[in-house]
Each structure stands twice: as C-alpha cells, then as structure tokens.
Amino acid sequence: MRIVAALGGNALLRRGQAMTAENQRANIRRVAVELAALADGNDLIITHGNGPQIGLLALQSAAYDPDNVFPLDILDAETEGMIGYLIEQEMTNALPPGRRSAALLTQIEVDPLDPAFQKPSKPIGPVYEKAEAEAVAAAHGWQMAPVDGGYRRVVPSPRPKHIFELDIIELLVAQGIIVICAGGGGSLFGIEAVIDKDHASGMLAAQLKADAFLMLTDVEAVIDDWGAANARAIRRAAPEHLADLSFQAGSMEPKVTAAREFAEASGGIAGIGRLEDARAILKGKAGTVIAADTDAVTWWD
C-alpha cells in the first residue's frame, strides 16, 4: 500500500509547549516510532506543516536586520530543511536496518491570480497582544488578524497546483525510501505565502496515486457540530456526505476539504485522526475515514 501521512502541528510541538529544539526533537522521536510501524510493508511519504517555525525565523530575521528581512519563501525552505532533518534522523533510529528515509526540499506551483493573495488568512508566528501587534505590523508592513485570544501575522495561503519535484519523489519511493517532503510550500519564483499543508499533501497523494492519505493530528475524529450539545464524531462517510456539514475554518475545514478532494480524485481512502491511531484508521477502527464506496454516514458511539 502507498500511504501519504501529513503530520499536524502537534507532531512537532504539543499545545502550550515552548518552541525549543529539545521539545521538537522529543516529539518527533515519538512520531518516528509510529511512522516506522506504519511504513512496515508499505510505501510511505511523510509531509508536515511549518507555521510556528516559519514565524519564529521571520522574527529572528527581522531582529537581525530590520531593513533586509529574508523573503518568506527562503525562510519556508529553511524550515523544510530543519524539520526534515529532525524527522529523517529520528526515522533512521526507529526504522529496521536497511530501510532508509530522505528529506527533500520541494517547490509548489500556485496560481498568481489565486484570490488568497487578496485576503491573507494563514496565521504564522507567535500570538501578540493588541498594542504589540500594531507596533510589529507598522515596523514590518505585516498584516495582523485576531486569533487565539490575541493577534497573529497572517499571510496568503493559495491553493497548490503542482509539486515540481514529483518525479524525484517517485524515483525515491520506487527504491523503497521513505520520503519527507512538501513541508509547508515554497514556489518556483518565490512568493510571500504559506501553502496549506493539508491541501498540498492531498494533491501530492493524488498525483502519486496513493492508496491512502492520512492527516494525523491530536483529535480523535472529525466532529460534526463541534462544540454543540449534539456534536457527533464521524466514523465513515463518502465525500458527498460531508459537503453540507460545517467544520471549523482554518482548522478542521481544510482537512475535510483535502480528504474529500483526494477521495474523489483517486478513489482511495482519506483518514483523519490521532497519530497513534494511524494503523487503526487504515482498518476503519479509529478516526474518520472518507471513501467514495460508502453508502451512508456512520458515527462513533
């Protein structure tokens, strides 16, 4: 089976943790054990997000030389290297002898006329109080938006169209190598944007003709009417079953959309759930599975 596994932010940092190298390495060590088990007998491609890391690098760049801040696409590539390096190291420790992994910097093509460029919405970096957010925005020309009880920088998040290194990924996978890629975006000509991990990963999974696309995070399943008294966890559904349901924008909504699009385009299964449940999600025993051959929505008790 060919599997694309997209790691949520909790793979690198648990909620409330400081963004230190030690914390990220400890979390990735735990992740690697689960992914190594998932790779047993399967082709595995690993993708990841980079929002907190790219925000930190942007701040460091601005602090070093405010008049010559590094472009966001270069910082994006730096985070791909940093995170990919940690995942590759820990995967090497967790895998059996002879099985290898490799981190690959990837560039993603987007449409320059994508409406997202007119409405930045992707939060990156730390949370500021209002006065500090206004000062930072004025100093760097950044756009801020209210999130998480404060304010964060927001940048465009255009939809991905194509991954330029797709043929290289195919070559590596054909040799039995676990590929770590598509870690947050980048583009051929370099733009100030962060491409959504779930959409990029779903597109990659479809283009690689993957059998399964897993979005591994820190929630047990997709919840319909999240936060309401009648909230229910979805066990299995076809893509069209989810079209009229409502999910959290910027959180679960892009995951559900990416899952629907992959299942429709490929005929494979998409799964959303906890990292530690990855193998159970594939068997339909945990998380939420989206598959075209599903007649009706089923729910977890």
In short:
It contains eight helices and 15 strands.
Describe the structure.
With 301 residues, the chain is of the alpha/beta class. The protein is 36% helix and 23% strand. The strands form 3 sheets. Strands 1, 2, 3, 9, 10, 11, 12, 13, 14 and 15 form a 10-stranded mixed beta sheet that branches. Strands 5-7-6 form a 3-stranded antiparallel beta sheet. Strands 4-8 form a two-stranded antiparallel ribbon. The model is unreliable at 185-189 (pLDDT under 50). The protein contains 8 helices and 15 strands.
Mean pLDDT over the full residue set: 86
Shape verdict: globular
> Could you tell me the strand content as a percent range?
15-25%
Q: What is the percent of helical residues?
A: 25-40%
Q: Low-confidence spans: pLDDT under 50, at least 5 residues?
A: 185-189
How far do the termini sit from each other? Answer: 29 Å
Structural class: alpha/beta
Order of helices and strands: EHEHHEEEHEEEHEHEEEHEHEE
SS field, number of helical segments: 8
